[in-house]
Design goal:
The protein is of the alpha/beta class. The chain is built from 12 helices and 10 strands. The strands form 2 sheets. The protein has an 8-stranded parallel beta sheet with strand order 7-5-4-3-2-1-10-9. Bound molecules: zinc ion. Zinc ion binds next to loops.
């Protein structure tokens, strides 16, 4: 069976990106997997440390394994993992990818912890991809009144730092700060720095990951993919869709969870399908 690395190479050749969607439960999982399967495209299930805590690390691994045993190109990422220990847990549970997030730490500390995770993964689960991050883009997939503190044009990742970080850590994937922000800014998102994405992609020569793409326009995300983005993360918009669907389901006297939750799954499917079409450059 093709690995996540194989699919990223496939995306590179086709000039498309793989969708990464965060889930907190089996309903989210169902919506993401069904949408990708119906379109016939690969997909990554993301679980942050808190989402993993809610779902169970081994439990989400088992769910994704069921899809993989069916031959579906569904992969599991330990999203935003802030400690080396939690990253090691993801390696030990045979996740397909882990993101060690030291973006808020000083450069040398970020490099050191990222390197430690890369080495541990290479030894204990060869083939697993490790993603590093440089440049803070805010934390938490939420609605925001304004751009979070510590995020500005000046704090965007420079080409020089990106190259140094990737060379020193030997990560497989790199997430820069290029105008992207976690969460949704109510007044509208800042623009993505497409030029910087292209320059970083040319310099580091490994696939780039765009975090916090909720709220960015389809056109902008398409340009980012053309510039070298190979994985696009969506969380906040998916959470909004889920909540909207459940609220509809809960507004009746229905008692069966598989009935009132089904509206949540449907709303998420609509959103995931629309995003996957953009990322995979399929006709709308
Ligand atoms: Zn992220």
């Amino acid at each position: 069976m093709k690995t996540l690395k194989d699919w990223i190479n496939w995306a590179e050749e086709k000039g498309v990106a793989i969708g990464h969607f965060n889930v907190s439960d089996s309903e989210g999982f169902r919506a993401v997997v069904d949408s990708a399967t119906e379109l016939g495209v690969p997909v990554i299930i993301g679980v942050s440390e808190k989402e993993r805590g809610f779902l169970g690390v081994a439990e989400i691994r088992a769910l994704v394994s069921v899809s993989q045993e069916k031959g579906l190109p569904v992969f599991l990422n330990a999203d935003h993992t802030y400690s080396v220990d939690a990253s090691k847990e993801a390696v030990d549970n045979k996740f397909d990818e882990v993101i060690i997030d030291g973006a808020e730490k000083p450069f040398f500390e970020n490099v050191a912890m990222t390197k430690e995770v890369v080495n541990y993964a290479r030894e204990h689960h060869p083939g697993m991809l490790v993603e590093g991050e440089l440049g803070f883009i805010g934390s938490g997939s939420m609605l925001r009144d304004e751009i979070p503190d510590g995020v500005s044009e000046e704090t965007q990742t420079t080409v020089e730092d990106a190259k140094k970080f990737v060379d020193e850590t030997c990560v497989d994937l790199f997430a820069p700060s290029v105008g992207n922000i976690h969460g949704l800014i109510k007044a509208g998102e800042p623009e993505l720095n497409i030029k910087r994405i292209k320059e970083i992609a040319d310099a580091v020569k490994i696939p780039l990951v765009l975090h916090g793409a909720s709220g960015n326009t389809d056109k902008e995300v398409g340009e980012a993919i053309d510039a070298g983005i190979r994985i696009v993360h969506i969380n906040t918009e998916l959470r909004q869709a889920y909540k909207k669907g459940i609220e509809k389901g809960m507004s009746t006297d229905e008692l069966a969870p598989y009935k009132f939750m089904a509206d949540g799954v449907e709303e998420m499917k609509k959103l995931v399908t629309a995003k996957l079409k953009v990322f995979n450059k399929m006709d709308a």
